[in-house]
Hints:
Membrane metalloprotease; metallopeptidase activity; single chain
Amino acid sequence: MNFKNTIYTVLIASIFAACSTDSTDNNPIDDNGIITEETKELNRKNVGKSANDLLSDDTYKSVVFEIFYVKDHKPTDETIANFKSFITERLNKSKGWELRLEEITVPAKSAYTIDDIKAMENNLRTQYNTINKVAVFGIYLDAEYADNTPEGSVLGVAYQNTSFAIFENTVKQFSNKPLAPSKTVLSSTVLQHEICHLLGLVNVGTDMQTLHQDTAHGKHCDIENCLMYWTAETGEGLLNSITGGNIPTLDVQCIADLQANGGK
Ligand SMILES: [Zn+2]
Ligand SMILES: [Zn+2]
């Protein structure tokens, strides 16, 4: 579908300032600078290319997360709270960070390809890297991933260096299954997992300090209870691996990698 001529209605814009400083008043960045196609290319690279930019305080002193959600697919307040703690714990940003959440309406669709999502991103995204600030785009969708398999219902994807998507409709379907973890646990796990791919885990932009890549499953960790274990990305995998309803955390090896690349 061509989204070029589609008008997206922005219904609500809520801004959650999560930084210790007020990002508007103390921000050294000239945010009125014109964004050109050339500057946008900084945010259109492969996953992992901005790992150091996101983790360390060297090039960018702050980060903005611009997250859109399709009506009725907003991340829960608890998911947002979990996300805030996770980011504060891992990113090393002297000027803090902010989260912008915006509701959107989109044409009905049964599945999204990565190309569909990129087209939506190009229409919606307003935040790109500026002098001191790195920008991340996220979108919560109302339909499934087009490349799902019978055993693999993808809950989220990180598809560019500063871009990710969550298939919140699929998250809801799995959280409604008997004995399943709550929507917040599933959604928080997937969100944090995809963010960690943007942070360069595992071995995709952030060098491993010890060998712990599960090469059979791509850019994942070989520790079964780690947030970056490969099963954390699909509904089937999470239903089998999450016990006790807790969000998996990063194991010591993944944390050591992030710290060696400028993170906390
Ligand atoms: Zn993954
Ligand atoms: Zn790990």
